[in-house]
Design a protein that fits this description.
The chain has 958 residues and is of the alpha+beta class. It contains 29 helices and 32 strands. Strand 26 (792-798) and strand 27 (802-810) form a beta hairpin. It starts with 5 loop residues before the first strand and ends in a 5-residue tail after the last helix.
Length: 958
């Protein structure tokens, strides 16, 4: 065989020969068929499994160039093989070498083994560096190699049992549910000599399963099958499988929501729709499709113009879509629309649909039919405008003009006219309005009277013509109407009680369909106009009547004014008489009590005189105490009567109601008499209240007197106090603000009141007592006192069961003022010769006061009336203190004497003594500095303490 120095060939990535020179054909393919295009291993079967195959496959795998010796079959010499990897092909060059000595051949053999070891090391490193599990089996499926990722995953050490077969690996590590699938895929791939691809779950070292994609490719022999080896990987796809599952779940949820919203939007009466950014519809619900009169396929993908929208309407939506796209904010509005449902008004909102990147990817919207609401608003607005116009109108003509204007503007027509007709159907008042100044309106009105239209209106029929050119009633005069700018008109008769009282004419310059709502607006406006006409006519008639009555009224005014003054004076007298009546009702019981008290005093004095004659002075103190107690009780009753009888208003102050009731308990017992049992139940810890104490006493006494009169045969009277906290419900029932109140309840078991009397119980001057026995002001004054004090009165009564009057007074934050107890200690020191002038017309009082003062070391002067006292005061005599009664005979009272004395003696100290209450004695005035007051009766020791205090505390200058 001739020696071949060199050869070259190239194969692609699928091992097909793309080039081979003649030397390569001679060396590698002794068979006489071309190499180009043939599979290398099939064209040169001797190369399969030779020392050339492994380096070539290694170079194809890692792209590294390799150089080694190779002896082609049938050749006596070796060739140096250099294989290099390119972008698309693997180049193989063979160069003949000379025979080497045995030692050199051994060196080359060692070099080849070293290179083979390096190649295997690189393969191990490469398979360890990638995340996939790499495996190699033989043709039967017995594992020859697995990388470290497999051992790490399943927790198998190198020293453990052998790798075993592919089927055993599946049995040990693949999820039981995936066994059959994996084994079937493996067997099918082996049988068909094709690639293996299967997804299954493999258990890790902790017993958890993860999804893997196992792929394997068979290495076929030089002549095709049988399979030599399987090369494969197992890639962890658990995260992808979970993502796919989550995506499937989201898809299902999205589909479910889509079906829900589709079902919802298909059943809602609102319109729902969506546009893409090219302004074409991508969604329309069933209601919108029905309004368009189109199917889904006919509507979706079209824009507004293509669906029959008016140009202005389509342009408006286009602008709004771009506005929403630019601002990413919703847009609201309302718009009329002419569809298969007729002319309707819709309220809409369109909003952006944002994508994951936050940008607008579509525009959606909903529209609601608000025709009825808008129609109602239009009617209400028209009626409101008419009411304003009527309020400002000065004549019937101005109202008619306003009516025509409001109808025309509300219906957006060209012109409108209102005519009011008289009994003979003659025009009495009329008003006209036109969109612009229109001189042809009169001619159009005249044209209405032609061709029997006027006659039809007089019969009460409404004439609605939507198009004069098509309506049979106007075709003959259509040209004349159109020449006057009338393309449609509405003529409405106004009928009242079967009579024609007015006409309304409305015209439009374009054909239109007149709606029931527009007709209703015309009729309601006309109804209000007719009412205004009637009201103005009535006002005019009333004005005439008032003019006629004015003279009569003027003559009556003086008489009415005088009568009013008389009534006011009578009412004031009656109010005052109520107190007089109450005092009169007290006198019966009090006369008996005072007789008893006077009897005790006079009897004690008589016995004292007898015991003095008998020389039994040691027994006098018992009678003195008895007389003193009777006098004290009489003084207490007198003070209560004086406070009750006062006429001036006292200022309110913090009041302890329990103490107030306790102070007047004896007075109440005397007033109601012994036949009625009085029970007072005072609440512990009762809150103070801010009231006028004497007025409260008067109110309670009035209530007790009323209760006494309701129990002529005797009974039980209960006065009870309590703290009440009124919440919203209770306060509302009692017409009071929410808060804390003191409640005083006066309850009797008398005759009670029927409902008709109960309803009027608080009315002024209402009484059920016989004439002359009551003014009817008792309960009304109690009610007035309670309301002025910020409280309320409630009356509960049942016939035969009795009555309860509950007086609610607001709680006060400050504590009630306590009266200081009377001090009974005698004066510590006596007088030092100070001069005291005692003035009193009652000789006994004057004598006792002078005697007590003389014994105390004071020098006294006496006077029995005002003039006598004034003469002494105007003399040069020393006077340190003036003690004077307020009520004196002789033309000068005590206050006048004191004022006159102070004119000459500015530092004179004055002590007034009086049998009246303090405020009754001096009205609402105030005592000047250096003046004091002591009310009768008083104890002599009280007088001494007061005199001593006045003289000790007077200023040094005095």
């Amino acid at each position: 065989m001739a020696r071949i120095p060199a050869a070259f060939l190239a194969v692609d990535k699928d091992w097909q020969v793309v080039f081979a020179d003649d030397a390569a054909l001679a060396l590698l393919a002794p068979v006489t068929h071309p190499l180009n295009g043939a599979l290398l291993w099939q064209a040169c079967p001797a190369l399969a499994g030779s020392v050339l195959e492994a380096p070539l496959r290694a170079t194809a795998a890692d792209g590294l160039s390799r150089q080694f010796l190779f002896t082609p079959p049938g050749q006596p010499q070796s060739y140096e093989v250099i294989c290099c990897s390119g972008a698309q092909a693997l180049s193989i060059s063979l160069r003949a070498g000379t025979r080497q000595p045995q030692q050199q051949q051994q060196q080359q053999q060692q070099q080849s083994e070293r290179r083979l070891h390096e190649s295997e090391t690189r393969f191990q490193l490469m398979t360890s560096a990638i995340p996939q599990i790499v495996w190699i089996t033989d043709a039967e499926g017995d594992l020859e190699f697995v990388n470290d990722q497999w051992r790490t995953y399943v927790g198998q050490a190198d020293q453990e049992t052998g790798l075993g077969s592919f089927a055993a690996l599946v049995e040990r590590h693949v999820h039981p549910d995936d066994h059959a699938l994996t084994v079937e895929a493996w067997q099918q791939a082996r049988a068909d000599c094709r690639e293996l691809a299967v997804e299954h779950r493999i258990r890790d070292a902790q017993g958890r399963y993860r999804w893997f994609l196992t792929r394997g490719k068979p290495q076929l022999g030089a002549d095709g099958p049988p399979i030599l080896h399987w090369y494969g990987t197992s890639t962890d796809i658990h995260a992808q499988k979970e993502a796919v599952a989550e995506l499937a779940r989201l898809t299902r949820d999205s589909e479910r929501r889509r079906r829900f919203y589709e079902s919802f939007l298909s059943t809602t009466p609102d319109l729902a729709y969506a546009w893409d950014l090219n302004h074409r519809f991508t969604y329309a619900n069933r209601v919108l499709l029905q309004m368009w009169g189109k199917t889904w396929d006919e509507a979706i993908g079209k824009n507004c113009l293509e669906l029959g929208y008016e140009p202005w309407h389509a342009e408006m939506h286009s602008r709004e879509i771009e506005q929403v796209r630019a601002t990413k904010r919703p847009v609201r509005g309302d718009v009329p629309f002419n569809g298969t449902f007729g002319r309707r008004i819709y309220d809409y909102i369109i909003f952006p649909v944002l994508g994951p990147d936050g940008e607008v990817e579509a525009v959606a919207g909903t529209t609601r039919d608000v025709t009825e609401r808008k129609n109602s608003e239009a009617r209400q607005h028209a009626l409101f405008r008419l009411a304003e116009a009527i309020r400002a109108a000065t004549s019937l003509e101005s109202i008619a003009a306003a009516t025509a204007q409001i109808i025309g503007e509300t219906l957006t027509v060209r012109w409108a006219s209102y005519q009011g007709l008289g009994p003979a159907q003659q025009v009495q008042v009329e008003g006209h309005w036109s969109f612009q100044h229109d001189a042809q309106a009169r001619q159009a009105l005249t044209l209405h009277d032609q061709r029997r239209i006027r006659r039809a209106l007089r019969s009460g029929s409404v004439v609605l013509v939507g198009d004069v050119g098509r309506d049979a009633r106007t075709t003959e005069i259509a040209d004349e109407h159109l020449a006057l700018g009338v393309a449609a008109f509405m003529d409405v008769p106004i009928i009242e009680q079967g009579e024609l009282v007015g006409m309304v004419y409305v015209s439009s310059h374009t054909p239109r369909t007149w709606t029931d709502n527009e007709l209703a607006i015309v009729r309601e406006v006309c109804q209000q106009t007719r009412a205004a006409f009637d009201r103005i006519r009535d006002q005019q008639a009333l004005a005439a009547s008032e003019a006629r009555l004015r003279e009569i009224n003027e003559s009556l005014e003086a008489e009415v004014s005088a009568r009013t003054r008389e009534l006011m004076a009578t009412e004031e007298a009656l109010r005052h008489s109520q107190k007089i009546e109450a005092i009169g009702q007290l006198t019966g019981g009090l006369a008996h009590d005072f007789n008893n008290l006077l009897g005790g005093i006079s009897g004690s004095l008589d016995l004292m005189r007898v015991r003095l004659v008998q020389g039994r002075g040691e027994e006098l103190f018992r009678y003195i105490d008895l007389a003193a107690r009777s006098a004290q009780r009489a003084a207490s009753l007198t003070q209560r009567l004086l406070a009750f009888a006062r006429r001036q208003t006292l200022a309110p102050r913090p009041t302890n109601v329990n103490a107030l009731i306790g102070g007047m308990e004896e007075l109440i017992r005397r007033t109601i008499g012994p036949a009625i049992t009085l029970e007072v139940v005072g609440a512990a810890g009762l809150w103070p209240t801010f009231v006028d104490g004497p007025q409260l006493e008067s109110a309670l006494l009035n209530l007790c007197i009323n209760a006494r009169d309701a129990m002529p045969d005797g009974g039980r009277l209960t006065i009870e106090t309590a703290n009440k906290w009124l919440d919203d419900k209770w306060a509302q029932e009692r017409d009071l603000p929410v808060g804390q109140y003191v409640c005083i309840a006066v309850t009797d078991n008398g005759s009670g009141m029927p409902p008709d009397v109960l309803a009027r119980a608080f009315d002024p001057f209402f009484t059920t007592k016989p004439i002359g026995e009551g003014t009817g002001l008792g309960l009304s004054m109690v009610y007035g006192f309670a309301r002025q004090s910020g409280g309320q009165v409630r009356l509960y009564s049942e016939v035969g069961q009795g009555s309860t009057v509950s007086l609610y007074l607001p709680r006060h934050d400050l504590d009630a003022e306590n009266e200081e107890p009377e001090v009974h200690e005698p004066p510590h020191t006596a007088g030092s010769g100070e001069v005291v002038l005692v003035v009193d017309d009652e000789a006994s009082i004057r004598m006792l006061a002078v005697e007590v003062l003389d014994e105390a070391g004071y020098t006294t002067l006496q006077a029995e009336d005002g003039p006598t006292a004034l003469r002494i005061l105007q003399s040069a005599a020393r006077i340190d203190l003036l003690i004077t009664d307020v009520g004196l005979p002789g033309g000068l009272n005590g206050r006048q004497v004191a004022d006159a004395a102070r004119a000459a003696r500015p530092d004179l100290q004055v002590l007034f003594i009086t049998g009246y209450a303090e405020n009754a004695a001096f009205g609402n005035g105030h005592l000047q500095p250096g003046m004091q007051l002591l009310t009768k009766p008083f104890k002599m020791e009280t007088l001494m303490r007061r005199v001593q205090a006045i003289l000790e505390n007077r200023s040094p200058s005095s």
